[in-house]
Amino acid sequence: MFEGIANYFSRHNAVRKVAEDPATAAELLLLIHLGFADGEHSARETAVFSQIAEEQFNIPHEALPEVIKYLYDFGYETTTGQAAALFADMAPERRISLIENLMAIAAADRHIDADEVALIQRIAAILGVTPEEVVAARRRSV
């Protein structure tokens, strides 16, 4: 019983954490957008997204369905450009980290589609990340 209560609060705390940090919400939303950029969403992409969410944002795996539901509701009218624009004033390391995460998800299914490349390039341009930095991020993510 106590484990069930703890899981409930863990899931809701994760949603609250994302809701209270627009940059985190925007980054997760961009990662989700990329997962569907090629028209397909693989189990490997989901696994990489889950790993990023847990390791970088401390969102436990069991909380992801509720976080994703929140992001769907939050992001229903949020475009990729709007979400990326939240990063314009972020430190360069944070912007490059986002590109690395996008590349990791794109490479997860062992095939980087032209639509995924186009989306990453568009986001990088909005963030002011140079093509050289994107290439370096790709090398680190593959």
Automatic annotation (TrEMBL):
One Pfam short name: TerB
Entry-linked InterPro entries: DjlA_N (IPR007791), TerB-like (IPR029024)
Domain Co-chaperone DjlA N-terminal: 28-138
Name recorded for this polypeptide: Co-chaperone DjlA N-terminal domain-containing protein
